[in-house]
Amino acid sequence: MRSSVIIFPGSNCDRDMDVALKKFGFKNQMVWHNDQSIPKSDLIVLPGGFSYGDYLRCGSIASKSKIIKSVINFANSGGLVLGICNGFQILTETGLLKGILQQNKFLNFICSNVFVKVKDKQNKYFKDLKKDVLELHIAHNEGNYFCSNDELKSLEDNNQIAVTYCGEDGTENETTNPNGAIKNIAGIFNNNKNVLGMMPHPERMIDKYLSGEDGSLFFKNILDNFK
Amino acid sequence: MEVTEAVAIDHGLKKEEFSKICELMKRTPNLTELAIFSAMWNEHCSYKSSRKHLKKMHTKGKQVIQGPGENAGVIDIGGDDAIVFKIESHNHPSFIEPYQGAATGVGGIMRDVFTMGARPIANLNSIHFGSPQHKKTRNLLRGVVKGIGGYGNCIGVPTIAGQTTFDESYNGNILVNAMTLGLVNKNKIFYSKAAGLDKPVIYVGSKTGRDGIHGASMASATFDDKIEEKKPTVQVGDPFTEKLLLEACLELMADKSIIAIQDMGAAGLTSSSVEMASKGNLGIELNLSEVPCREEKMTPYEIMLSESQERMLIVLEKGKEEHAKKIFDKWNLDFAVIGKTTNSKKIELIFDNKKVAEIPIDLLAENAPVYDRPWKKTKLPQKLKFNKDEFKSLKLSNCLKKILSNSNISDKKWIWDQYDHTVMGDTIQKPGGDAGVVRVHGTDKAVAASVDSSALYCFSHPLTGGKQIVCESYRNLISVGAKPIAITNCLNFGNPEKEKNMGEFVECVEGITEASKYLDFPVVSGNVSFYNETKDKGIKPTPTIGGVGLISDYQQMLTMDFKTEGNLVYVIGKTDGHLDQSIFARELLNEKKGPPPTVNLFNEKNIGETLLDLSRKNLIVSCHDVSLGGILTAVSKMCIKGKKGIKINSLKGLTNKYEYFFGEDQARYIVEIPRASLKKVIEILNKYSVHFDDLGIIDGNSIKYNDDINLPIEELADAHKYWLKKYMDS
């Protein structure tokens, strides 16, 4: 499976993503934000970081960058686009995904392991995933997902909520919500479920010496579904 | 403006220093020249009070590639890999403006490391605040933590360990010490020594603004009531630009275009250009009209003194200008050829086609004043005679809870949750352990790092305190299974013009030197921060040691959390029950006198090496050094982290339980031993003649000791984990 990771100035999880993708057998390439086009890919990843410094709303400048038109075209033609953390923020700014990511409820950056519940498996990311709850890792200051009531309703009606923050046993409530996100939302799909944005970092959870290994399941599952 | 003695004094120079300048120059300097002298001759840049004593430090070792004197120290960790590291203070600016002060401290130390060609792989910090009751403490802490996080998180370098303490002596002067480790190919290290004539001098990075002017002078003076007026001397950080600068510099460093490179830190363009020329025994000519400026009509004086962040000065091979410019253009950074190296051995500044300053380099560097300041020895305080009958009214379990929730012992998760500690995907030991550990990317190796200081011990007896921190750092590395290699130090002290403070400095340095020599744990980099004093009140002497060690196979790393029920828990090293200067004495007896625990370097080394032997042979499964709060505190942390209890054996004979459990004797560790390994462990301990006590067995969910203690781990965890969060929320 061929993948491309887009590097924006200020991206800082690009290498981690590259390492993770290659570890599980993706043929990955790095693409610079000023490039006109993206090499032939089956998956495009927008990595975490602080694109263009994020001194304006997070992801807003990246959503106007040169490369982003190719990403949007790719998504609209049904290609898989994955945005992690800052990548999720960028996807909401491009309009590929609904809603916005606000500053965390308690106004602090949070770096911590979290559990997320997989809410929908009818998609190329989570189909046939063996687990329902994954232990992943978050590191963000603006991960508090918010959208209008109408948008929320349509997300729910179309099963576009991908993952929600929960406890180890899958409980979703205020105490298992690290950042105040509406309905504990940690990640969502677009209408066709080929575009996934999520705050947690699977690429930081890919061997037992790191914070955990559930990220491995996530990447392997994408590959398995592609075969 | 006419330069007079009064103007010189306004620039932080002493009367005698000004006459010396006039004498050396054989004329009165103009204002720009005076500014350059003041920037180079202040304490922060010239080390004029400390130089004499720093020379004695132990700085050499088999694995040392570069000792003090460069942007950072470098050690060999095998293969082509080397680690570049250094710690630096940003105390004065952080008190004036905590967010920017701390942020630019982190930015500055990272630049020191990547200037040498290394990619930063880990950040650490040691931060010290006034009493929790002091009205400024909470906001200063919040601002500093946000600043450190704001900068490090954005760059994408994990913050893997740190230290936070509270003490009333920091009420008017907080300490913010930041440390960075970088990884470099040892054949591709870059230095700051210029070489060759007529080579282009390049300015890259951010534009120069009016921020941070006089920053280095400000950091070389004490504080008074007018501290608010000093805000403009604090620099403003832009981590995004630093990230670009990092990537651009590393890209340019991939080939051989750079002759010398130096970041513009304290005293900005002045010190970077003078240092490069001085090290290369050359002259340098700069055309200040070419310097990219953020604001209009900046004068040569302002350009030379600005401490705007995220800037680098590079001496380039001739003909490589276009190649270099392309890289900096790609990263959207300013690039300007602003001068050249010359054979004049002078710094010559041109502005608007006129020469505006001309100073022989040696007057600024080698001829800078060096002081042999008078100092006073601190006598070893008399050992206290505690009334042990008085202890009996204290319930052991209450003492333990009180100590675990003490501001200096309690869990600092509230802080490190705000630092990205997992980015780069190689953090295998997070903050909260004895040391942070990151893998050397793509290898089996891992590097451990820890920051330590013991102001209370250093205040009581600087010589012992100096030794003790080096040992503490050594132990923290051993505890995670790392072989200690080298240290960096940040020497935070009061006013060196006072004999007592100067004495504290001299004796702490002596202690550090003695221990680092004995333990073969050389000092490879560091900085000195004097004048941590407000309205005549100075801080307790706080030398901070940043230790770095190597784990050759990261699978052998140790952590402190108890692993398996039924395993045995041993105390390695002898306990005499030293309570003077302990947390127990302070918190429960309100007793602040007495000497710190004695440091026995033979024991430290022997026990440390024994422990390493045990961990290399996979005979122990968890390890934690015993420090503040003694054995019971250490064991509690291991229980809390592992969510497991312990049944502690009855103490033998006449041992006083308070002394045994809370004494702060040095050279001790607690280890967890699987039963199957016990025989071998004891054999090895006996072989090295190391004392050990059979403390107990991992069992259940509480800490139990005879009828005295029966505390559920959850209750202990509550006492330990939430003090800081509650404090910050209140």
Structure description:
The complex is a heterodimer of chains A (227) and B (730). Chain A has a 9-stranded mixed β-sheet with strand order 2-1-3-4-11-10-9-6-7, sandwiched between helices. A two-stranded antiparallel ribbon of chain A has the order 5-8. The longest helix of chain A has 13 residues, at 214-226. The termini of chain A are close together. Chain A has helices spanning 14-23, 68-76, 86-94, 149-157, 214-226, and strands spanning 2-7, 27-32, 43-46, 80-84, 100-102, 110-118, 133-140, 144-146, 161-166, 185-189, 195-198. Chain A is globular. Helix content of chain A is 22%, strand content 26%. In chain A, helix 2 links the parallel strand 3 (43-46) and strand 4 (80-84). Chain B has 730 residues and is of the alpha+beta class. Helices cover 35% and strands 23% of the residues of chain B. Chain B has a 7-stranded mixed β-sheet with strand order 8-10-7-11-9-12-13. Chain B starts with a helix and ends with a helix. The interface between A and B is medium-sized, with 30 and 33 residues.
List keywords for this structure.
heterodimer; A: 227 residues; alpha/beta; B: 730 residues; alpha+beta; seven-stranded mixed β-sheet
Unreliable sequence segments of chain A: none
**What is the annotated CATH architecture of chain A?**
3-Layer(aba) Sandwich
Overall geometric form of chain B: globular
Computed Rg of chain A = 16 Å
> Strand content of the residues of chain B, in percent?
15-25%
The strand line-up of the biggest sheet of chain B is 8-10-7-11-9-12-13
Radius of gyration of chain B: 26 Å
Largest interface: A-B, 30 and 33 residues
Can you count the helices of chain B? 27
Class inferred from helices and paired strands of chain B? alpha+beta
Mean of pLDDT of chain A? 96
* SSE sequence of chain A, one letter per element: EHEEHEHEEEEHEEEH
Physical arrangement of strands within the biggest beta sheet of chain A: 2-1-3-4-11-10-9-6-7
Number of domains of chain A: 1
CATH class group of chain A: Alpha Beta
Major sheet of chain A: 9 strands, mixed
Helix content of chain A: 10-25%
Residue share in helices of chain B?
25-40%
Mean pLDDT figure of chain B: 95
For the record, give the distance between the C-alpha atoms at the N and C termini of chain A, rounded to a whole number: 8 Å
